[in-house]
């Protein structure tokens, strides 16, 4: 019935949730070792977006984003003699401390920005208002308030 799906899902997720942490270290090491391909400025963003979309139904896309943003999987960048691990740390240094006149801007920002939810923010921001507008336009005139 209707209640069996949540009950079975809950019962199955308990052992899965207990087992996955033992293997997650291996998954992280695979992602870090593949960072040479993953961070390639031509192929990497496509792989990242594809993996991100595949993980959305399971809610694991946040884990992938965190790994790329804060670990060696996102790359290690030398900026002004300092080492920055992950996309977010390097991007914050360039955006907030160095600015667009620094050579690191042209060198790193095209690659870094392609991993920060490209083309996702506009669709996310305007999706709900667009749905509301569509509902308003398709509603019967006498039902509009």
Automatic annotation (TrEMBL):
<keyword id="KW-0472">Membrane</keyword>
<feature type="transmembrane region" description="Helical">
    <location>
        <begin position="7"/>
        <end position="27"/>
    </location>
</feature>
<dbReference type="InterPro" id="IPR050429">
    <property type="entry name" value="PTS_Glucose_EIICBA"/>
</dbReference>
<keyword id="KW-0598">Phosphotransferase system</keyword>
<dbReference type="Pfam" id="PF02378">
    <property type="entry name" value="PTS_EIIC"/>
</dbReference>
<dbReference type="GO" id="GO:0090563">
    <property type="term" value="F:protein-phosphocysteine-sugar phosphotransferase activity"/>
</dbReference>
<keyword id="KW-1003">Cell membrane</keyword>
<feature type="transmembrane region" description="Helical">
    <location>
        <begin position="47"/>
        <end position="68"/>
    </location>
</feature>
<keyword id="KW-1133">Transmembrane helix</keyword>
<dbReference type="InterPro" id="IPR003352">
    <property type="entry name" value="PTS_EIIC"/>
</dbReference>
<keyword id="KW-0812">Transmembrane</keyword>
<dbReference type="GO" id="GO:0008982">
    <property type="term" value="F:protein-N(PI)-phosphohistidine-sugar phosphotransferase activity"/>
</dbReference>
<keyword id="KW-0762">Sugar transport</keyword>
<protein>
    <submittedName>
        <fullName>PTS trehalose transporter subunit IIC</fullName>
    </submittedName>
</protein>
<dbReference type="GO" id="GO:0005886">
    <property type="term" value="C:plasma membrane"/>
</dbReference>
<dbReference type="GO" id="GO:0009401">
    <property type="term" value="P:phosphoenolpyruvate-dependent sugar phosphotransferase system"/>
</dbReference>
<keyword id="KW-0813">Transport</keyword>
<feature type="domain" description="Phosphotransferase system EIIC">
    <location>
        <begin position="4"/>
        <end position="145"/>
    </location>
</feature>
